Amino acid sequence: MADLLNIGLSGLRTSQTSLTVTGHNISNVNTAGYSRQETVQGTRVPQFSGAGYIGSGATVNDVRRLASEFLTAQVRNNTVVASDVAAYKGQIDQMDALLAGSVTGISPSLQKFFAALQTSVESPADVPARQLVLSEAEGLAKRFNTVYERIDQQNQYINKQMGSIADQVNRLATSVAQYNDAISSMKATGQEPNDLLDAREEVVRQLSTLIGVQVVEQDGGSLNVFVGTGQPLVVGAKANTLAVTPSPQDPLRMQVEFVSGGSRQSITSQISGGEMGGLLRYRSEVLDPTFNSLGRLALSISDEVNKQLGQGIDLKGNVGTNLFKDINSPDLMALRSYPTGADVRIDDTSRLTTSDYRLDYDGTNYSVRRLSDNAVIPVTGSGTAADPLVIGDEGFSVSFAVAPAAGSSVTLMPTRRGAASIEKVLDQADQLAFAASARAAINTQNRGTGAIGQPSLSSGPSPILTADLDRLFGSSGLTLTYDGTSGTLTGTLPAGATLSYVSPSTTGLTSGQTNNLRLDYTDPVSNETYSYEFTVSGVPSTGDTFTLAYNQSGVSDNRNGLKLVDLQNKAVVGVSYDTAGNPIANSGASFSDGYGELVERVGTLTAQSRVDSEATTALLKQAQDNRDSLSGVSLDEEAAKLIQFEQYYNASAQVIQVARSLFDTLISTFR
């Protein structure tokens, strides 16, 4: 009876333990990361008797945690990727809406500006129409400023979010280290601390939502967690930290440092995965290129419009002035480098790229590397204001008031703040230079039918110099007389001026056809060069005269204004040049196309991020479902187990009752 009683008691204890474990599962059905547990039951050591070995009941050998390292790792790895994509998508959706929006984008303001310009050019003496040009120019500049501010807000958000993520990573890393210490101590007893293992794994999973991690289990049950390219965030019971600090190359962009003891290492470029990796990937793939693309476009618009205005004449007969702020004003040049001290001058906006650059100085020589593709760019010049460093064919040069220290580096950002710095500075509508700088006329006494076309300045300085034009044309104009014998135009040209025939003949005029001529002039005082192109058509007679003069009173002249309108479709952004310095045909883009390329690129990346988001979400759900199929708690299954173990408990109690009854019967026989 004693044996039967012990067997019943063992069953009672075993079923009670199973009921406890089942209740524990049910109570943790909503606990994140919990893995269901089950009892592993076995028989007790049998006892030998003359009839053989007789069983002595049951015992609980283990409380097993139903978890798979493979399935857990799948969830962790898919969480890393899904969090990366979600963070990236959350930012690029905002960027796409900003750039492509009919209200928030640049295109509407750009179209309004050129539409106003077209209307004004059609009536060049109409001051209210000119005033509309100024208003739309101000609207365009402010639209660039606003878009820049919105993008800069994203940059500030990323900086703050990086700091917040680093704090969370450090807190979770400390938790993992503490769990490692507790688990190692408990495992020394030879049993698994199931709930602590689940809690630690959930902390690691949370960590993987923030940053890409690699997890390696070591002897004793501790998990070592690594980030980046193998930097040990957690080793056993010790946790290192991450710090987010301003980048030494650009304080407006934060960097991530790995801190271990007294050493610090920048690992920004090595981080991938998780929310941190997604934000950094977005910053490098979208945010920085967008800053620079918008800046390049703003610089190009400002420069091209200002240069064209500088080659025209306003309503007062003066040379045109800038509509937008000079892109090479001292304050703007100083903002294009960090640390400050370098003046970055934009020499040719058509050659600008959308990259930043790093300039290194070893105390004797300068070297420059383009950061977008890490290409080494040749450098010429000494770096002084009189002999600036010309940075290859990149469209800008650099000068220093004081040479940088030996071994120092300077980050060059020629286009970064272009959209923030564009500004309308012209206030007087009558100062818009719509008239051309030169005019042509025929002598009304000419006997032939020869006609001369209005000259066009094909190349020249901006702004043009009135003293140069006075020396070229003189006070009464430059008179050209047709010589029928030689078929040429004769006249007294000033020093530095040459007249050449371009087509159809290079030696003289072809009577009855449209002849293209060019007047080239290098001023002996300013050393500036001018090139005017014009036509002579019809059949001139010997002695007929034509006059070229400075256009001081071109009130109704809109020829320079038409060139301003033509800028809308002229390829002036991102032009490629051959080795001789000539623009390659069909290279470059117009203002609208340049902005369209930016919108298209961001839109393509946005569409791809949405596809990636759907795919990674599906993969993560599949991985979670796979894990839950093994480790998740099913209330239906646990309810069935409750009934099973309850019956087991009652049956074991019945065994005890039988043993007691037998024992009572035995005792009563001896009374």
UniProtKB/TrEMBL annotation:
Residues 343-413 form the Flagellar hook-associated protein 1 D2-like domain. PANTHER family: FLAGELLAR HOOK-ASSOCIATED PROTEIN 1 (PTHR30033). Belongs to the flagella basal body rod proteins family. It is found in: Bacterial flagellum; Secreted. Residues 93-324 form the Flagellar hook-associated protein FlgK helical domain. Pfam families: Flg_bbr_C (PF06429), flgK_1st_1 (PF21158), FlgK_D1 (PF22638). GO terms for molecular function: structural molecule activity. Residues 630-668 form the Flagellar basal-body/hook protein C-terminal domain. This is Flagellar hook-associated protein 1. Keywords: Bacterial flagellum, Cell projection, Cilium, Flagellum, Secreted. GO terms for biological process: bacterial-type flagellum assembly. InterPro entries: Flg_bb/hook_C_dom (IPR010930), FlgK (IPR002371), FlgK_D2-like (IPR049119), FlgK_helical (IPR053927). GO terms for cellular component: bacterial-type flagellum hook; extracellular region.
